[in-house]
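Box S1 | Example of a co-folding query
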Amino acid sequence: MKIEIKDLSQVYKNDFRALSHVDLEINSGMFGLLGPNGAGKSTLMRILVTLLNPTHGDVFVNGMKLSDNRAEVRSYLGYLPQDFRFFSKLKTWEFLDYAASLAGIRNKKQRLEQVDDLLEQVGLFDFRNRFANKLSGGMKRRLGIAQALIGDPKIVVVDEPTTGLDPEERIRFRNILSNLSQREVIIVLSTHIVGDISSTCSQMALLNGGEVHFKGSPEQFIKQTDGHVFKTNVTYEEMKLISEAYPIITSVPEAGGYEVEFVANELNGWKADTITPSLEHAYVYFMEYIANQKQVSNDILI
Ligand code: ADP
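Box S1 (continued) | Returned holo structure for adenosine-5'-diphosphate
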């Protein structure tokens, strides 16, 4: 499976440019689309699942042009939208059964088998008789991924699935996606939460202001921050100065001050040790230094 996104731009009716010349290639496995709120992630997801026609550019699925083959591409797709909703009057299994019949699975036995299988996969089998609106937030999200998996889609698009979940549910959700990524499918996961871009994401992109600022592996993304993450001990007075100068990642109180981790382009006189960057460090560094620089250069171009 392969998705190619070519020179995609989206300008909304109010002239707002939500995506600008986006080029991406997505292969089988888990693809993480990381970016802050308003970056254009949902816009891109909605174009991928054929809910929105881009203003410019196109998407190719296994070489097939999406704009000319909507129905066929749709048959490959499963989608969990950011604002996933369902009928409150249905029990959990009934909801999935209903969704499966809408997806065209006519044979009742086959449908019920698939429903049970999906309930097992997302850990909701024991709750199958609970009314769907009585499920917890995390369970509702899991029901959402179950409905996205009806009919064995080859491409699964999940838009900000972990927003608002507690840490335990977030991990649970990530594990479901990670199990899925063992199959020959493409999972496109959009998120503003760095922790969602786990080691299971073989590929990732960083979207900011509608533009792709980075594409590659999470390891490559982290590597760009080599030599820019520091650790040092500061007094209470120095803490104020250093936090004004650099983005602080963590600060741990200790006798007489703090042990701080921060990212910086240059140390400007501070004495600190370099430490191995994590994805979170890389994201903060990127947003603070690289994305801003790009903004400056765009301004100059204009
Ligand atoms: P994200 O999912 O990364 O938060 P979105 O794709 O939802 O980003 O939105 C990107 C930008 O486009 C935001 O500034 C948003 O306000 C704007 N936007 C989204 N949908 C519309 C729309 N229908 N009309 C106008 N602007 C929109």
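The first strand starts at residue 2 and ends at 11. The CA atoms of residues 120 and 126 lie 8 Å apart.
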